[in-house]
Amino acid sequence: MKITHIKVFHVNPAQHVADDKNLNLVYVKVYTDEGIDGLGEAFATSKAQTSEAALYDFERMLKGKDPTEVLRIWNTYHRSSRFPLGTVTTGALSAVEAALWDITGKAAGLPIYKMLGGPVRDKIQVYRSTSLDGIPAAIERGFTGVKFSPQPDDYMDKPWMQVLDESVDRVRRARELVGPNVDIGLDWHGRSLSPHEPIQFAKAVEQYRPMFLEEPVDTDTPASYAEIKAKTTIPIAGGERTINREQMREIMEHRAVHIFQPDPSACGGIMETIRWGAVAEVHQIMLAPHNSLGPVQLAMSMHIDACVPNFLVQECNVNLDSQWVKDLFDYVPVIEDSFMKLSERPGLGIELNEEAAEAYAFEPVDRKVVIERDGGIGLF
Question: Residue 14 sits in a domain of what CATH number?
Fold first, then answer.
């Protein structure tokens, strides 16, 4: 079996469906001469066209290769670049890697996690990433864990002490809303340029027993993470922007987090995330993969979560009941009572309807630029 070509699909859920955000999702399909194809998803956010170019640049190397030689192809692309890969190129590698595993699983008649040694758990705990206002709907759907951003939407227009007070009040409201037995994750989005802000916030909300405080500062500064971690009882989480082994190693050496959150569509794919999970296990750090994209990335995470002993919980940032999801996919991961079932379908376990994808075509989307009160550029 040989790879013949690839095709990139842009999917913007907001094109025809008002219940989802305006975001271009980037999917790639890898085709073979035996009629078996594979699907993967690349992390792109506002750089979808750049990701598309990176994927088609990858295609030249892929043609004629045996798609079941996943590790050989991965290492060839990774090492032949000479310079470290960036977010876009690593995202392309991540998507292709997942597609190759999808092909290999279909050829073997096995789900990916069974080819990686089989599951270490029967089901996967999931939390819903949403807004403060969206928490009731998540609870109604059966989720026993939620995550939201504690800062008010207009945080950039307010002085720090006002942001602090309002953020603490939002956490209080969330805890009162869900009661004592629902986990609450707090996503700070790395919006602070100094550890002092999240330290003050963490001390003020410890009483509400958050599940974790995510990205209190940018993970490019693991020493600052370690400082925050030492000054609060709240578990510290982060790692979604970690895209290479050197960054991962530094986080581990600093013991910067309690919970590591790499993104399998950005950090190198399924096997690379599992490898990072093993390094985290040695450091007694739990794994909770980041998922800000769609159901394909969620399916990729399912196979990882099934195999990693130190897995904690899986983020779900997509409404699987959305019309665009129903239009585009023949199957999506099944979540019941806040647990995701392990799929027995071969390969990745999810298929993209190519014709339906055309109706949700690319539309230019720029990530928000935050303008601070003094006119400076803030973090979002």
Answer: 3.30.390.10
Catalytic annotation on 189? yes
DSSP 345: S
pTM for the whole thing?
A: 0.95
Find the catalytic residue in 189, 196, 254, 283: 189
CA dihedral 198, 203, 209, 212 (to 10 degrees): 20
Q: What are phi and psi of 350, to 5 degrees?
A: -145, 140
Helical residues (DSSP H) of the chain, grouped into ranges: 48-62, 70-80, 87-108, 112-115, 135-140, 160-178, 196-205, 222-229, 245-253, 270-282, 295-307, 323-328, 354-357
The single residue of 78, 258, 290, 303 carrying the catalytic annotation is 290
Contact 231, 260 (CB under 8 A): no
pLDDT tens, position by position, 239-274: 999 999 999 999 999 999 999 999 999 999 999 999
Closest CA to 78 of 240, 222, 246: 246
Is 203 among the domain residues? yes
Q: Is 196 part of the annotated catalytic residue set? A: no
Rounded Cα gap, residues 136 and 177, in angstroms: 8
pLDDT digits over 64-90, tens only?
A: 999 999 999 999 999 888 788 999 999
What whole-number distance in Å separates Cα of residue 344 and Cα of residue 335?
A: 14
Q: How is residue 376 annotated by DSSP? A: -
For the chain, how many structural domains are there in total? 2
